[in-house]
Amino acid sequence: MTGEEYISTHKTNTFKKGDTVVMHTCMESEIPQYKDRIWTCRTDSYKDKSGCDVVFLEGFSGCFLSEFLRITN
After folding, report:
1. Which of 19, 23, 21 lies closest to 31 in space, CA to CA?
2. Angstrom distances, CA of residue 27 to CA of 11, 23, 40, 64
3. 72 Cβ partners below 8 Å, 6+ apart?
4. Are strands 63-65 and 53-56 parallel, antiparallel or unpaired?
5. For residue 40, what pLDDT band results from cuts at 50, 70 and 90?
6. DSSP for 28-45?
7. Number of neighbouring beta carbons within 10 Å of residue 65
8. How many CB atoms within 10 Å of residue 36?
9. Beta-strand pair 39-40/63-65
């Protein structure tokens, strides 16, 4: 996993640790066990080494592109 120091150095304002989000407009959002699931952000969002805005989610392996997540009410 990407280290906390890297994440804090490359942090974006898209999501904060503890925010709850749902997936949308991506392949994962159509998988039955992920469809309409509410996820909790495990980290703040940050720019990964390729420049993409991503975030780690509790219960999801690897980071996830922020553009396919939206905050829940």
Report:
1. 23
2. 26, 9, 19, 12
3. 20, 21, 22, 38
4. antiparallel
5. very high
6. GGGSTTTTT--EEBSS--
7. 15
8. 9
9. unpaired
Render pLDDT for 26-37 as a digit per residue (tens, 0 to 9): 999 999 999 999
Q: Is the pLDDT of residue 1 over 70?
A: no
Cα–Cα distance measured from residue 34 to residue 44, given in angstroms and rounded to the nearest whole number = 21
DSSP-derived secondary structure letter, 2: -
pTM over cut 0.85: yes
Distance from chain centroid for Cα 36: 15
Q: Spell out where the chain has E strands.
A: 20-23, 39-40, 46-47, 53-56, 63-65, 69-71
Residue 68 burial by CB count (10 A; 0-12/13-18/19+): exposed, middle or buried?
Answer: middle
